[in-house]
Amino acid sequence: MGLLEIQKLNQYYGESHTLWDVDLDVPRGECVVVMGRNGVGKTTLLRSIMGLLPATGGMKFDGEELVSKPAERRARAGIGYVPQGREIFAQLTVEENLRTGLGARRDSLRELPEMVFDLFPVLKDMLNRRGGDLSGGQQQQLAIGRALAIDPKLLILDEPTEGIQPNIVAQIGDVVDRLRLSREAEQEVADGVDRARTQYGVTVLLVEQKLPFARRLAQRFFILERGRVAAGGTMDELDDDLVAQYLKV
Ligand SMILES: Nc1ncnc2c1ncn2[C@@H]1O[C@H](COP(=O)(O)OP(=O)(O)OP(=O)(O)O)[C@@H](O)[C@H]1O
Ligand SMILES: [Mg+2]
To answer: What is the Cβ-side half-sphere exposure of residue 73, based on CA atoms within 13 angstroms?
Structure first.
């Protein structure tokens, strides 16, 4: 059973029907990538999952029905969301930006979790800088750090590599891999390793247009075409024909 299970999801912007009977399953502990050209409905799908847009159909997260829940309760259920374009607060400091993520925690923890700084040490050195003064790559790291402040079971990322320089793209890839490392795998890590650092086991739903990044991180893919799921499978099933038909511009 998947951590996130979506059945026959439909979404409308007024008269315009944007998502059509979308079925999508995100298995626990995996990274699933949603691909597709510009305007096919990827962001609309993620915003519908987060409850930021109204949608109909079945959506279960960790066994609980989501569709009737308001956005705030979905985050609290353990879904961290990194929106396209990052949407960090330019006038707030890095620390204040991170703290906005704490509001949705299930527990009453008021301290920023150490894991944010383990994964993004650069943020620790910049706590008092304004969000707007950071580079694009640093802002993306901040947006991911903010989503991790709730200690999510599922992390949703919308085109995290868009407009980001290659070395930061690689770092973000490393972080997503580390986050996904399962608790079981961690048991096998040799003594002396700080356990808390590898006990993440976060499941990942990624929207990405860059194929090499998607191939590096994901185990499964779904392709959207005009609001419908056109194809899906394991990454080795994403062949040249599918790429040519649905992903090449
Ligand atoms: N607020 C809105 N009101 C009406 N239509 C919208 C709105 N936002 C998006 N759309 C339309 O919904 C469709 C899907 O848009 P969406 O942003 O989900 O695509 P996307 O796959 O994320 O694209 P991109 O790769 O450019 O980010 C597009 O046709 C878009 O024009
Ligand atoms: Mg988008």
So the answer is: 8
* CA dihedral sign, ordered 82, 130, 73, 64: positive
- Ligand 1 atom closest to residue 13's alpha carbon, by position in its atom list: 4
Strand-pair category, 79-82 with 64-65: unpaired
Q: Which domains does the chain have, with CATH numbers?
A: 4-247 (3.40.50.300)
Alpha carbon nearest to ligand 1 atom 18, residue: 41
Question: What is the tens place of the pLDDT at every residue in 143-189?
Answer: 999 999 988 999 999 999 999 999 999 999 999 999 987 544 444 44
CA distance 43 to 59: 16
User: CB neighbours (10 Å) of residue 180?
Assistant: 19
pLDDT of 207: 98
SS3 of residue 218 by DSSP: coil
Per-residue buried b or exposed e for 18-31, using 16+ beta carbons within 10 Å of the residue's own CB: bbeebebbbeebbb
Which ranges of 88-165 would DSSP assign to H, the alpha helix?
94-102, 114-119, 121-124, 136-148
Pocket lining: 80 vs ligand 1, CB cutoff 6 Å = no
| pLDDT score recorded for residue 18 | 97
Atom 1 of ligand 1: nearest residue by CA position: 13
Parallel/antiparallel/unpaired status of strands 16-26 and 203-207:
unpaired
Distance, CA 31 to ligand 2 centroid (Å)? 18
Give distance in angstroms: CA of 40 to centre of ligand 1.
Answer: 7
Ligand 1 binding pocket mutation candidate from 10, 37, 42, 205 (most atoms within 8 A of CB) = 42
